[in-house]
Design a protein that fits this description.
Length: 235
């Protein structure tokens, strides 16, 4: 399967051929739908048939491997026929908010010094959990630093390194709970110029200025050393 979102997260739709249909969902030969993973929800959207019918996609999940995406249809939807041509189209407004949020969490990793123990990305609210023993966090200071990095409009780009290069640079991995996929020979990095560099397979904006102003919500204690930082769009 050709994963078009991996090369261009701004693609809203693509032409595709239906490869398989089953109880779990629909597989295409190519897709713009990001499957749930790394704390980022799967895309929703629609499949448009040649006859003009629109079939609602309520979620996208990984299939048997990282190169496979299953498009999950709404209950009782009539699946397209195998071999038929469809236009796969994501709910762009939702996807773009998730892209902005995901990129903002990478900035938070640059602002907070500590290993990431968990996280979740949402359209309105996102969070990261950090392993921070004996650390006091200042909400206003964190928000100020995040918004400074956003306003500076740093470029955001993806690049690839080999499994061996990642193994030789273990400090690139910030997440304790989720390890980057390896074994395929290469690993995708997200590079926020001069700010943050770490493995990530999600979808992101091109410049930090696209994120928009944010604010820090609750900072919660989730264990003796675990601190949960919640982020919201500010306006």
């Amino acid at each position: 399967m050709e994963l078009l979102f991996r090369e261009d997260a701004y693609l809203k739709d693509c032409e595709a051929t239906v490869v398989s249909v089953g109880e779990e969902g629909v597989r295409l030969d190519r897709t713009v739908f990001y499957p749930m993973g790394g704390g980022q929800p799967g895309d929703s959207g629609r499949l448009k048939t040649a006859s003009g019918e629109e079939i609602r996609v309520v979620d996208a999940r990984k299939g048997e491997n990282h190169e496979d995406v299953v498009h999950i249809l709404e209950p009782d939807a009539v699946s397209p026929e195998i071999g038929s041509k469809v236009t796969a189209e994501v709910d762009w407004d939702r996807r773009y908010r998730l892209m902005r949020m995901h990129s903002c969490l990478h900035l938070l990793c640059a602002v907070v010094t500590g290993d990431v123990t968990g996280g979740q990305i949402g359209e309105e609210k996102s969070r990261l959990d950090f392993n921070l023993p004996d650390t006091q966090l200042d909400k206003e200071a964190l928000a100020s630093e995040l918004n400074r990095l956003i306003t500076e409009n740093h470029s955001v780009a993806e690049r690839w390194i080999t499994d061996e290069e990642l193994a030789a640079s273990p400090d690139l991995v910030r997440t304790m709970s989720v390890k980057p996929p390896s074994g395929s020979g290469k690993v995708r990095l997200l590079d926020i110029a001069g700010v943050d560099l770490q493995p990530c397979g999600g979808t992101h904006i091109r410049e930090t200025g696209e994120i928009g102003r944010v604010r820090i919500g609750k900072i919660e204690n989730k264990g003796r050393q675990n601190r949960r930082i919640n982020i919201h769009f500010d306006g």
